[in-house]
Amino acid sequence: MQCAARSSGRVMLNEPRNDFARPVRKLATITASLIFGHATVYTYIRGFMPQLVKLTRDHDVAVITIDNPPVNAMSPGVPEGIQTAVQRANEDPDVKAIVLIGAGRTFIAGADIREFGKIVSGERPRLSLLPYLRSIEDSQKPVVVAIHGTALGGGLETAMSGHYRVIAPTAQVGQPEVKLGLIPGAGGTQRLPRLAGPAKAAEMCTFGDPITAKEAHDLGIADSILEGDLLAGAVAFARRVAGEPVPRTRERNAKLQNFDTRIFDQLRELARKTKRGQRAPLAAIDAVEAATKLPFEEGCQREAELFNECLFATESKALIHVFFGERTVAKVPGISKEIKPFDIKSAAVIGAGTMGGGIAMNFANAGIPVRVKETAQEALDRGISTIRNNYATTVSKGRLKQAEMDQRMALITPQLGYEGFAEADIVIEAVFEKMLVKKQVFLEIGRIAKPTCVLATNTSSLDIDEIASATSRPHMVVGTHFFSPANVMKLLEVVRGKATAPEVIATAMALGKRLNKIAVLAGNARGFIGNRIIGPYLREAQFLVEEGASVEEVNQALYDFGMAMGPLAVDDLTGLDVSYYIRQEFKRFEKPGVRQPLVPDLLVQAGRLGQKTGKGWSKYDQNRRPIPDPEVAQLIEKTAREAGIQRRSISQQEIVDRCIYALVNEGAKTLEEGIALRAVDIDITYVYGYGFPAWRGGPMFYADTIGLKDVLARIQDFERQHGPDLWAPAPLLKRLAEQGGSFEAYDRQKGSAAAD
Ligand code: 3HC
Ligand code: NAI
Q1: Of 102, 209, 270, 674, whose CB neighbour count within 10 A is largest?
Q2: What's the domain range around 75?
Q3: Where residue 693 sits, what CATH number does that domain have?
Q4: Annotated catalytic sites, by residue?
Q5: Quick one: pLDDT at residue 39?
């Protein structure tokens, strides 16, 4: 959509450009020095102000255009620019009404998130957007806000301080601050309930999900949905309301009366369950509740207190780290934008088992036709029927239309042979985790596939280079490690072999984005990033039960820490046979005499494979709920006694430290070996693939928040107790701790070294 102001037919108030820029600069200088007390900021604003906010005129309507690519964030200079432009439009006798619009692809996507870190570190003093938005609301002439793309956070708050909102049908609005560990901090918790009612406002601020233009209109957030040219429609709308008394959101109190006051406690209960361990969702509810109890100004004050509390908490630092981390992992040093990915128009998957079926669904969901090959009709039928059942469940929950399901099923072609594979742009192998089987499959597809076809393997542990050696084109081979269930889990680990071509890596990374995944690049080493690091974590969980903690205590401690599931519950979910086979495969890497967990093999021998057999570390009822099993407790105790392991009671803190620091220590080794490009790649892998709480930022960021000196000291304790084979500190961790460094700073240094 093209929303930038067109100059034809309009008087440019700032023609020549510097006429507008000069007073704005002057004002901005004063404002900036008041706010920031910072001479350098003046230069910043002076340099950028004319581009950030433009004031033009369409006859009697002033048009204020925010032009701060890529997403029109409220960076320094933008709020000041809007304020000044509104003031100028009010002073101009020829202007009857004002339109506020965003240039480019979106309205304002929120406050500039990069500024928060600077405020917290003291680099910038705190800045409140409230006075700027107040000046929009105080405008004597009506301000019509035209929304396209997304009006999020401070963007929606800006929109609500206008007198009217018109919206493009495809636009979305929301208060997603909670996803950054924050609450709306520019009056959103006070204005939104006045427009949408307290219940919907509290829900939007607590969970942060955006709503559509239609919902915004139905709720009273938007006054009109405008088809066609948004700017022209907004100008026409502004002309219609010119001269009428302006409705100010802060004065619209009708919806604050007569609502069900129980909603706040109901939401709190829901937030405690679904946003376990997080403070911001509860703070958001408190702030919206304040809107129903306090006058507007006092409500804003309460909001500001809660916002600041959240801003300085670790939760928001961690979630902001994850926000930028998601975007950082997509940037691979050495794979520049000039390296163009291959276009993926059709795909093929080999194997219709647990993973193959899920992978095929990803392609169908993205509208890409996909062939699915199996060895036997029965396995093929089973795989396709699982896919159909998965879709049918989504349809029954109302999250997919039957017609959409039919379309997606029609994109999947089941088959037993290789017909059509020669046209596929990518083939993903998802057969048994056996090197010989995989090499045979790669030998076959290497002969059939076209030269530009990407040959991908979903192996979770095998050597990509050895698999690639079965083809005559190892440069086309790459690992695409999906996580189970592949149609749900967000993580895609892209594994680079030693011969993988940059275009192939770029293709796999771009494919991840297209399939709505977060793709992280990993090196080709045992377990890549994720499964390499999970090893010591699981090992410690298993040692802990042998040393005296119960299965339930171990699971509960990590669950309370924020993990999606306890480690032994994860073991039961993936299947103890799976880890058993991986252990067999990697036995040759084990150092003789180093302690290994004893119980897992015994559980497998007893047929306790986890949920799939109804029992593993725990028993499972029909609804797959775990029940403590005294048989397992006895088996553990007996095994520990026979092995001479001294049993003791173990604190929750020790359980968490042993498991999480094992992750951190192995993570540091993975980082130093270059298997992970940056610490943040490990964090994102763990948040999106292993249920690590995003609000703790991932294992490496978590270690930073504890302080690497303390983490090292604890690891050295464990080394003294359990020996250097298991607990020798990673050299990188040791170095960073001794230098007073952090993984985040290490990433920054690496990043700037790469840029140099
Ligand atoms: N501040 C600073 N940078 C931002 C930003 C923001 N609010 N939103 C996006 N960006 C950056 C991204 O980091 C990215 O940078 P990069 O190209 O260097 O990696 C670039 O803009 C483009 O972003 P995306 O790749 O995410 O672009 P998409 O088109 O996929 O998505 C979006 C656009 C939906 C706007 C998405 O970026 C988004 O959700 N942004 C965050 C929105 C948000 O959380 N707003 C609330 C901020 S907090 C706030 O407003 C507090 C207030 O109450 C006071
Ligand atoms: P699975 O046993 O459920 O499915 C494998 C399927 O491949 C079977 O249906 C089998 O009939 C078929 N198959 C075997 N040889 C074939 C051939 N030559 N041609 C066509 N089909 C063939 O196994 P699963 O769990 O789907 O695993 C597949 C791969 O994905 C493995 O490499 C595994 O390590 C990996 N993986 C598994 C995860 C999981 O949680 N199950 C997670 C991530 C990766």
Answers
A1: 102
A2: 48-292
A3: 1.10.1040.50
A4: 157, 177
A5: 27
Please list every protein residue whose CB sits less than 6 Å from any atom of ligand 2. 350-356, 373-375, 379, 430-433, 437, 441, 458-460, 481-484, 574
* Residues 529, 535: Cα–Cα separation, whole Å: 11
Tell me: do 653 and 728 sit in the same domain.
Answer: yes
Report the chain (756 residues): mean pLDDT per 10 consecutive residues: 33 33 40 32 35 95 97 96 97 98 97 95 89 97 98 98 98 98 98 98 98 98 98 98 97 95 97 97 98 98 98 97 97 92 98 96 98 98 97 97 98 97 98 94 97 96 96 97 95 98 98 98 95 94 98 98 97 88 76 93 96 96 94 98 97 98 98 97 98 98 98 98 97 98 94 66
| In a shared domain, residues 598 and 507 | no
Contact 524, 535 (CB under 8 A): no
Helices in 587-651 by DSSP H: which ranges? 599-605, 630-642
* One domain, residues 452 and 556: no
Compute, in angstroms, the gap from residue 61 CA to the centroid of ligand 2. Answer: 63
Indicate if 418 and 470 belong to the same structural domain.
yes
Counting ligand 1 atoms within 8 A of each CB, the residue from 71, 127, 300 with the most, and so the one to mutate, is 71
Which residue's CA lies nearest to atom 30 of ligand 1? 327
Q: Which atom of ligand 1 is nearest to the CA of 175?
A: 46
Distance (Å) of CA 74 to CA 52, 66, 82, 320, 686: 10, 9, 10, 16, 31
Taking the centre of ligand 2 as the mean of its atom positions, its distance from the CA of residue 383, in whole angstroms, is 11
Any idea what DSSP says for residue 16? S
Is the CB of residue 304 below 6 angstroms from any atom belonging to ligand 1? no
Instruction: Report whether 185 contacts 306 (CB < 8 A).
Output: no
